[in-house]
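Example record used in the benchmark description.
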Amino acid sequence: MTASNNVKLKPGDTIGILGGGQLGRMLAMAAARLGLRCQVFSPDPDSPAFDVVLNATCAEYADVEALELFANDVNVITYEFENVPAATAMVLAARRPVLPAQKILETTQDRLVEKDFVKRLGIGTADYADVSSVETLRAAIKKIGLPAVIKTRRFGYDGKGQAIIRDGDDLTRVWEDLGTKSAILEAFIPFEREISVIAARSVDGQVESFDVTENEHRDHILKISRAPAQISDALAAQARGIAEQIATALNYVGVLAVEMFVVAENGGPKVLVNEIAPRVHNSGHWTLDGASISQFEQHIRAIAGWPLGKPVRHGEVTMTNLIGDDILGYEQWLTVPGATVHLYGKGAPKPGRKMGHVTEVSPRKK
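Model output (structure tokens):
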């Protein structure tokens, strides 16, 4: 069959999810509340998403036979991570609708292609340059200056595949340590704060954005998100407008996150786009308990061809990630008024591994 975006699921239909991590787990739980079934495809037998679905496929993403059987069992396919192999997406898209579409993955999997796309829309980003060798790295530094951030063009997350370059650094060593032949150099941005916008777009073009979230990272991993961000209403409207513009330009179906920097300017602060994540996002976890509809339900509605909800925030919300050994203290959160604990059902804690999160909601002041 030829897949298309014209999906209209009914209760009892099945959604296929590529990836079995905590995002897949929470997507499946949101779908179940709406009477939709999910089947998870993941190569990891310990995938936490397997625990909340009736049917799962444990196979490699290159296993064409397993992919075809998986596609036959579902009505539409989505994913919880953006680094879906291109061949996997092609096999599946030939048999079932894959949302968001494969073409969007081609844009967002490559940081240089993504930056070029954002720039063509007239949206601000950090200055950047393509880097493919030590020589091109030196040329890029002359153009952009130092300090700067070098990143692999593909497959980086939570600070992996990137490094800050400062005056005096051994550029040959930096390049060799990165271990890639394709990278991007970005100007280092002295930002006031990091923010993100979680936006959903339906098949018919309706876009709904959640309140702007302010994010705090530790060791390159998101630790705390707060909603709403402590920025002006005008700047928040600008940030939401950028996310909606990107979603529309991509002809996107589902939830995406746009990470941004707030930077000081003589005429007042402005926002620059850092990255696009074509999926539900860690900085949107606060919506599970802090809004009238979660990012996970919003994504399920979008790919099912259902109307999107109008997000209403319940109050001031703080989301804290439980990373590594943080999980060992989960019981202390169970007694905190207004706190909701989410544990992902993973195995032993490891440094940098997201094991759960806690949402705290302070009711709106009257």
